[in-house]
């Protein structure tokens, strides 16, 4: 009977430990992608990010927003990390994976039109 309880305990504990390990390991890219408190506008984001992957102009019914993308904040991400700004270049939020986590909601409105722009165009727009 003790042997059966050990087998059942191991059978339940092993997958749980693997799951906990995967969640803990995923915190490494999240911590790298999390912007520091010094990121308050586009310029400070570009200074912190060093090597952005792209920039977008997002037009919705509520206004114009900008987004800078960087390295994904998850190991198995469906999209890059995204740092979002209002029409004046002020930081409004971020997402570790813009493919799965649609934050901030105003940037991912159903009517949003997303157009890729260069970093130079982004800086000229602000």
Tally the helices: 4
Give helix % range: 25-40%
**Global Rg:** 20 Å
Domain count: 1
The largest sheet has its strands arranged as: 4-3-2-1-5
C-alpha geometry: elongated
Q: Tell how many strands the DSSP assignment holds.
A: 5
pLDDT average, as an integer? Answer: 90
Q: What is the helix/strand order?
A: HHHEEEEEH
| Class from secondary-structure proportions | alpha+beta
Distance between the termini: 71 Å
| Sheet with most strands | 5 strands, antiparallel
- Oligomer class: single chain
Explain how this protein is built.
The protein is of the alpha+beta class. Helix content is 37%, strand content 24%. The chain has helices at 2-25, 27-33, 42-49, 119-125; strands spanning 54-60, 63-70, 81-85, 91-95, 113-117. It has a 5-stranded antiparallel β-sheet with strand order 4-3-2-1-5. Strand 3 (81-85) and strand 4 (91-95) form a beta hairpin. The model has no long low-confidence stretch (mean pLDDT 90).
């Amino acid at each position: 009977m003790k042997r059966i309880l050990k087998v059942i305990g191991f059978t339940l504990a092993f997958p749980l430990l693997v799951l906990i390990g995967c969640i803990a390991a995923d915190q490494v890219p999240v911590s790298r992608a999390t912007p520091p408190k010094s990121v308050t506008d586009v310029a400070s984001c570009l200074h912190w990010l060093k090597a952005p992957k792209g920039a977008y102009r997002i037009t919705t019914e509520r206004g114009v927003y900008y987004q800078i993308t960087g390295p994904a904040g998850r190991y198995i991400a469906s999209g890059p990390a995204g740092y979002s700004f209002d029409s004046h270049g002020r930081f409004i939020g971020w997402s570790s994976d813009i493919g799965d986590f649609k934050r901030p909601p105003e940037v991912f409105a159903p009517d949003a039109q997303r157009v890729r722009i260069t970093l130079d165009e982004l800086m000229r727009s602000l």
